[in-house]
Write a structure and sequence with these properties.
heterodimer, A: 365 residues, alpha/beta, 5-stranded parallel sheet, 17 helices, 11 strands, B: alpha+beta, 60s Ribosomal Protein L30, Chain: A, Phosphoribosyl-aminoimidazole Synthetase, Chain A, domain 2, 2 domains, 7-stranded mixed sheet
Chain lengths: 365, 370
Amino acid sequence: MRFVDEYRSEAAAQKLIHAIQHVVTRPWTIMEICGGQTHTLIKSGIDQLLPAAVTLVHGPGCPVCVTPRELIDRAIAIAQRPEVLFTSFGDMLRVPGSNTDLLSVKAQGADIRMVYSPLDAVKLAQKYPERQVVFFAVGFETTAPANAMAVWQAAQLGIENFSILCSHVLVPPAMEAILSAPGNTVQGFLAAGHVCAVMGYWQYEPIVARYHVPIVVTGFEPLDLLQGIYMTLKALEEGRASLENQYTRVVNRAGNPGAQQLLQQVFAVCDRSWRGIGVIPHSGYGLRPEFAHFDAEQRFVVTDITARESDICIAGTILQGLQRPHDCPAFGIRCTPEHPLGAPMVSSEGACAAYYHYGRQWSGA
Amino acid sequence: MSRMVQGWYSEVYTQEVNPDMDFTAGIQCPIPISDYPTILLGHGGGGRLTQMLIDGMFVQAFANPALEMLHDGAVLDLPGPRLAFSTDSFVISPLFFPGGDIGSLAIYGTVNDLAMCGAQPFGLSTALILEEGLLMADLWRVVQSMQQAAHQVGVPIVTGDTKVVDRGKGDGIFINVTGIGLVPPDRMVSPRRAQPGDAIMINGSIAVHGIAIMSVREGLEFETTLESDSAPLHTLVAQILDTAGDHVHVLRDPTRGGLASALNEIAAQAGVGIHLDETHIPLDEAVRGACEILGLDPLYVANEGKCLVFVQADHAEAVLETMRRHPLGRDAAIIGQVVAEHPGKVVIRSRIGGMRVVDMLSGEQLPRIC
């Protein structure tokens, strides 16, 4: 298949692995930001093909994983209301709240539907004017423009029975939180290519300057990741704190100005709570006052619902790269995809799910 | 296997054994109700939750030696001929899809389960559960399709049952088809016969049915010329068995839960390891493209016209040739082998040469956010 097979060639992968072996002279720890990257790394076995001196730690870039329990509880409370038709991307449905999850609530009779685009939720609102259609708007900068478009479109069409439960998060503040955390081990980053496709990579320039870490904007195919790892290691070995772009076929410095403009129109930067990490200042998007009537948390008065994170799940330290999934005593024992204690075990981008499904607990990587 | 046991359950139920009778009296429900107080969709997904239901509840409640073989059908040792017996229920939406419909799918599904036991099917029953308001024209279309499918397979539908449920309590039509087939006296095809050294083959591209259905499901329509692979496999299987006879150890149609779940079940039942090579698994380009876009792993997507064959390695080439000569096996390939290492686990070599475990499906595959 064109545009896929080229980036999964075994011969090219072997060349990059040799180049990595050649360039590495001492131990380094690199974090891939995005959960999609984590899954490619584990699924294609890259983690096992790298020299032992290279440690990959997995970053916070899984929107499902970082959504706090509190918000899941609020989503469940809204979805249980009889007038509500609750819509969500598929992989939010299994994430455990304090007592239950959206799939179980669906089984008990709530009208919860999986959609592939927030614009489908707007269509549902048009189709069922007597229902309150709510979309669970989670995601990083990647999904934010589509969600902004849904709100903007609903506003243009005068659709009043549509709202979003907004939990948008932003990558650069999370990277800064990781770099400034005590005990941080991350020496270089693979930045998330699709986030940069929207936002560009100029936002990372201050981080490189302030923390002296190399950052390489990296794609999602096996060869993208191997090349991104190589470029990061080369910068580290040469003592360069540089910002480089591996994903040139998609990303440029400026990003997508149309998408950025729409984001600014609909959303404003706000503080956000991250699962297991806590509140990170200026780390998310909320609706601007002129779109506040599309805010499901206000419409259904659920802001008084609060929740504590699990005492057992170590999602917070995993999402910051301080620990890895098999460091968790509950991993694969008390916490499995059937009985998840935290979101990273059920999300298709979660690090724990990757380790579990691809058998890293058995191969001992 | 999974369908067989579930079907066995519903068969008991629809025979309307005294409904007041608590037929699990004295047995404690082995699935912790506190974990799953309600049935989730994932319990029907063909993965670990389904297995939990089957192994934990049905097999324990209905325990008997024929059932405990956990094959695609039960082989009954009677005085005289050996019978294979299998049942399957079909609850598919939409009822009509590219490449088939619920009627032909139901006939082929049960015929295939019998074929996987090494049996020649010779009689089918059908039970139709119809929803109030179903268009008579749609029912007629489905019935004609069942008739044509049964005729093509050469197996009569000899008995049946019809029930109608209130509007909103069904999904148009639910169909159960039960079948009986004859197993030659010396034939032993069973998941437990998988042995280290066996070659593992499949008769063509995986994941076709699941993606074809998804392409027409409400809210997800995408343009494709893909058609379901729904087809009767009994002639292909007969030719495979003619080629390699007793050296064919396992036959399995990897339906719900896909290739990965079927292989995990076999590895667990036989206590062997399975080694796959990702580049050898046939995968149609359009199916692969759809999986890439939707974020689905084709290893877990349903098939309806595919057959896994485990055969002693020295007969593999001959079986492969036989399969490729059959219209349903043109793209047949050897996709892996049975190994003594890592018993119960399926391991795959990725396209770039890394290794990973292929786990059983957990619940249902859900498309991801980004």
